[in-house]
Structures are given as structure tokens and as C-alpha cells.
Specification:
about 450 residues; mainly alpha; Clc chloride channel; globular
């Protein structure tokens, strides 16, 4: 299915106007044409947004690192203040912008016509989420851009469809979110896989075509402007059969346990069943400040390694360079503290960084195997343990590291990690985090 009509189709449309049922056919053809135009324009715009967002985020991290070098202990004051301010502003002015952004798109896709008019995927929410996420990165927050990119991309796609008066369906939201993942990581196949595993509850052929068209256009925009880059650098090492049989189970079990614990902690805090947790949640700004202080302290102790997305540290580990044994555990704590704070920001990139740190620890247990290959298995083990999307994880890591020779070990580790994580935390993270937004919808509709 083509995104734009062929000249022959336009000619047939013109001829149909003179037939008996011409007006009805013309309306149908015009509707299809508008939908394709909306998808194409939306994909171009969200591709441009993803590139701009990445540059803003990188600049914010650079400025924070400069600040921390000039004032080594300044983060102990700046980070808690910005965390507290971000949460205070988000709760008061943009509550739908809190957290990752992926749960919001999942919630909105349950009732697209209504939510297209609501705040979950509005441009206002998207703009505020972008600004606050950049601010959080500028305070050293361990957040990623991918989750926010999904929400803002869905908002852009919805806005374009509304402007062209095209009906909003679940496919529009799914296509926007999937294209956002593809543009953020420069991973087109991962965008499609993400739509299947996380965003779409009923994946139909029409949705598939819409998703692939949006992902393709967003990818072309990113390719044309940012170039054909590999996100975490190329990793050409592989494992032999002995290495696969030894390392993959260990990485899968360790990653599934750690990732499952992370998800369980977030879900428990989001929907507290214990009185002491409910009491803590009654003071969100204070909680954010304490979390910010924790992130600042971890960053100082790790010489800045845990601040931001963790992209540079992850790239070094993937390329086989030496890293600190404390990087993985410290990044885990920094990411958990940032997520629990309630500040807007994603967990994709930080989770991959934590997994790289885990893989670095495992490389010490398996010194005879290529370090880069072991690091990749740690990355996928922990990432799958958190998000429970093994297909998406495999494709993301293959596309971001050009490690096609690792596909079998990656799949083996991902499947083991998925099983282990499900034992630790039965509910999938993003679907669990979407429940408060679904509750908000129900409450608003009953008023």
C-alpha cells in the first residue's frame, strides 16, 4: 500500500465524479488521500522534533557537566531544587506529562476519538513534557528521551490528523508512538516491533501499513539530517556455542531479576497498597527533592557517570573499554530515584545503560569471552527485565550496535529474562503505569 496516491488513482477519482455514485466514491477517495497526507506530514514533523529534542537534551547534559566541573558539589543543591520544581510544576500545570510518556499513549489508544480532544496526547502536554524533560536532563536526572518522544510524537500525529479533519483511530496513536521510537534511536525495525509488543492490543493490517509508513518517513527525515549513525557504536564481536550456553542463561537470570525488581518498585510506588507508601506519596515535592539529592550524590560519587542518559558510558562499555564495577548498581539507583521522583522522563536509555553496567560485571565472571558481547547480553537481559518486550529489545540492540552476529545469543537471553522478570513482577511495567491515566479518563467521563 502506497502512502500517496498514484497519478492513475487521481485520474480515476476525477472520472468517478461523473458517475451515479460518484460523490460517494469521491468522498471515500478524498478521505483516504487526507489520511495518507496526514500520516506523511505528521511523520516528517515528528522526525524533525526527535532530532531537535536530542540536540536540546545533549546540550542540557553538556551544560550540567560544565556546571558540575566548576562547582563539584553544586549538584547537591541544584538537582534537588530542579527535581522538586519540575514535579511541582508538572502536578499543577501538566499532570499528564509526568513519567515516561508511553503509558499515556497506551491509555489514549483505548479510546482514541475522546482522547484526541483530551490532554494525554495534546500539543500543550507534549511541549511542556519536552521542556521539563530537558530541564531534568540539565539537572543530571537519569532519564531517557525515548518515552517522552513517543508521547510527543503521538501528539504531533493527532494534531496533524485533527487539522486535516481525519478521524483519530488507535492506528494514528500507535503509528506516532512507533515512529517516535524509530526516530529517537534511529532504529526503524525497532519502531515496528515496539508497536506490536507495547502499543497495539489488536494489531491489524491497516494499522501495520500506517505504522510502517510513519516509521519509514520519520527514519528518512532522521537519516537525511542526522546521517546514518549507530547509536551505541559498532560491536562486531560474537560468542561461540560454549559462550552462548554459559553466558546467556546467567545474563538472562540476572537481568530478569534486576529488571523485575525495578519494575515492581515503580509499580508499587505508583499504586501503593501500604499505608507508609501512601503517606510518602502525599508529599510529592519533598519526595522529588529527596530523589534529586540522591541522584546528585550518586553522580558526585561516580564522577558524573550516572548523570543523564548514560549514553557515553554505555558506548564505552559496548566498545570493550574498561568501566567501574559500581557503574551498573549506581546507575540502577539513580534511574530508580529519578523515576520515583515523578519528574517527566523516559527509562529506555537509562535501562540500557544499567544493563551495560550489569554486562560489565558479568564480563569479569567470563573473562575468556569477548567483553563487548557479554555487555550486550547484560544490556538485553536487564532491558527485557524492565519493559518485558523481548522482540523490541533484540531489534533495538542489534540496530543500535550493528551486532547482527549476536542475534541468537540476544534472543536466548531475552526469552530467559522475560520469564524470570514475570516471576518477580507479573504486571508489565508500561501497562501498569497506564492505569492511573485510565482511571482519570473514567472519572472525567462520569462527571
Amino acid at each position: 500500500m502506497r502512502l500517496f496516491p498514484e497519478p492513475r488513482q487521481i485520474l480515476d477519482y476525477a472520472r468517478s465524479l461523473g458517475s451515479a455514485d460518484g460523490p460517494e466514491k469521491a468522498r471515500d477517495a478524498l478521505s483516504v488521500f487526507r489520511r495518507r497526507i496526514a500520516t506523511g506530514v505528521g511523520a516528517v514533523l515528528l522526525g524533525l522534533f526527535a532530532i531537535a529534542f536530542a540536540k536540546l537534551g545533549d546540550e542540557a547534559q553538556r551544560l550540567f557537566l560544565q556546571f558540575s566541573k566548576a562547582w563539584p558539589y553544586g549538584a547537591l543543591l541544584l538537582t534537588p531544587l530542579i527535581f522538586a520544581g519540575a514535579v511541582w510544576f508538572t502536578r499543577g500545570w501538566a499532570p499528564e506529562a509526568r513519567g515516561s510518556g508511553i503509558p499515556q499513549v497506551i491509555a489514549a489508544s483505548r479510546n482514541p476519538p475522546r482522547e484526541a480532544l483530551g490532554p494525554l496526547v495534546s500539543l500543550k502536554t507534549g511541549v511542556l513534557k519536552l521542556l521539563i524533560t530537558v530541564l531534568t536532563l540539565g539537572a543530571g536526572g537519569s532519564v531517557g528521551r525515548e518515552g517522552p518522544t513517543v508521547q510527543v510524537s503521538a501528539a504531533i500525529m493527532v494534531a496533524v490528523h485533527r487539522f486535516l479533519r481525519v478521524p483519530i483511530t488507535a492506528g494514528v496513536l500507535i503509528a506516532g508512538g512507533a515512529a517516535g521510537v524509530a526516530a529517537a534511536f534511529n532504529t526503524p525495525l525497532a519502531g515496528v516491533a515496539f508497536a506490536i509488543e507495547e502499543l497495539a492490543s489488536a494489531y491489524e493490517q491497516k494499522v501495520a501499513v500506517l505504522v510502517m509508513a510513519a516509521v519509514m518517513i520519520a527514519g528518512l527525515v532522521s537519516l537525511g539530517i542526522a546521517g546514518d549513525y549507530i547509536y551505541f557504536g559498532a560491536m562486531r564481536q560474537t560468542l561461540d556455542l560454549r559462550g552462548v550456553l554459559l553466558v546467556a542463561p546467567v545474563a538472562g537470570i540476572a537481568g530478569g531479576l534486576a529488571g523485575g525488581l525495578f519494575s515492581r518498585a515503580l509499580l508499587s510506588f505508583a499504586d501503593p497498597r501500604h499505608a507508609w507508601l501512601r503517606a510518602i506519596r502525599q508529599r510529592p515535592v519533598i519526595v522529588a527533592a529527596v530523589c534529586g539529592l540522591t541522584v546528585a550524590a550518586l553522580g558526585i560519587l561516580s564522577a558524573g557517570a550516572t548523570w543523564g542518559t548514560g549514553y557515553e558510558a554505555t558506548r564505552h562499555l559496548v566498545e570493550g573499554q574498561a568501566g567501574s564495577d559500581w557503574f551498573g548498581p549506581a546507575k540502577f539507583m539513580a534511574t530508580l530515584a529519578t523515576a520515583l521522583s515523578g519528574a517527566p522522563g523516559g527509562i529506555f536509555a537509562p535501562s540500557l545503560s544499567v544493563g551495560a553496567g550489569l554486562g560489565d560485571l558479568l564480563a569479569g565472571i567470563f573473562p575468556d569471552d569477548p567483553k563487548g558481547a557479554v555487555v550486550l547480553l547484560g544490556m538485553i537481559g536487564y532491558f527485557v527485565g524492565v519493559v518485558r518486550a523481548p522482540l523490541t529489545a533484540v531489534i533495538i540492540i542489534i540496530e543500535t550496535t550493528a551486532s547482527r552476529g549476536m542475534i541468537i545469543p540476544l534472543f536466548a537471553t531475552a526469552l530467559i529474562a522475560d520469564i524470570v522478570s514475570a516471576m518477580v513482577c507479573r504486571e508489565r511495567l508500561y501497562h501498569g503505569l497506564s492505569k492511573p491515566f485510565l482511571s482519570t479518563q473514567s472519572n472525567s467521563s462520569s462527571i
